[in-house]
Amino acid sequence: MDCMWYAPSFRRIYVTFAVGFLFFLDPAFSYFDDEDHLLAVRQRGGYMSFADALSEYTDPKFQSDDNVQGLLRIFRTNCPTYFGKCQDRKITSRHVFVAVEGTHRITRNIVSNKLAARLRGNHMFSPPAFMTRTRLVHNDTDGMKRAFFMLGIYATAHIVRDAISELPVVTAGYYVDQIAFSIASAFQHELPNRKSVLYKWPKDLLKPDIMFFINTPSQLTKKTIDLFTFRGRIVQIYRNWEQPPPVVEVNNTNVYEGMVDLMIDTIRKKLNYEGSPIPVAESDDINCYFYN
């Protein structure tokens, strides 16, 4: 697949333009509903593109802020492809990329680590170490805090792309983990329906091959989720997610090895992966982050 590279604009992306473009591509979208949904989520730190998250840090008011500028310099150094630099090599074969998410962080981290060990792969967190070890603050506003974590997702994707040709990669948390928080915060009584633009994967972010969502014991027996609880809304957001990558809900039985066994079996069956590198298909986005 030919990649069209460009340096992202540092100006703030306007929600109306973004939704208008989606409406142009697919008239089935409800323009006004999606515009309202995007605005509500954006106000709660729900960034749906790299440029949108970056805009929080490239605002002119931070030009003389040493902490913000220091973080931007480190990010540009470690993730040059997001700023228009072509990747050094094209990947022709790779291993699987798996995201493990869930409402209980400790369980998610333990299970994803065990899964990475079983796959003999890399276990990664977000934000990556180059962002967290700098001790550079992400400012004291909620918007910049959420932007920091979303930029961490893009930084993790950059690292995954380089690592996946050698070994499988399992991340503890990824994109939906971040955007679900903002959606659940924005809609406290009724969530957007499954066709909402909020449930679409960003075009400039590397997709995992499969995503596992670890549910919690308190939600296991509930056929009807209580949307008036924050955790209940998070569960329903994952169940609403119909776009690629596929989401596989894993019931948390408190037996870690059992959950890992299920994940390994699902990876083998759904991805036809047995440990050897798989050829990169033309439709694979591993060789390109930005599209025209």
Describe the structure.
With 292 residues, this protein is α/β, with parallel strands linked by helices. The strands form two sheets. Strands 3-4-2-5-6 form a five-stranded parallel beta sheet, with helices on both faces. α2 crosses α8 and α8 packs across α10. The chain starts with 14 loop residues before the first helix and ends in a 13-residue tail after the last strand.
What is shown here, in short?
With 292 residues, this protein is α/β, with parallel strands linked by helices. Helices cover 43% and strands 9% of the residues.
Average of per-residue pLDDT values: 81
Number of strands: 7
Give the uncertain stretches in residue-range form: 1-31
Helix content percent band: 40-55%
Class based on secondary structure composition and strand pairing: alpha/beta
Could you give the distance between the termini? 12 Å
Order of helices and strands: HHHHEEHEHHEHEHHEHE
Q: What is this structure's SSE topology?
A:
Layout lengths: L14 H11 L5 H12 L7 H6 L10 H13 L14 E2 L2 E6 L2 H15 L2 E4 L3 H4 L9 H22 L5 E4 L2 H12 L23 E5 L2 H4 L9 H11 L6 E4 L5 H16 L6 E2 L13
Helix pairs in contact: 1-2, 2-8, 5-11, 8-10
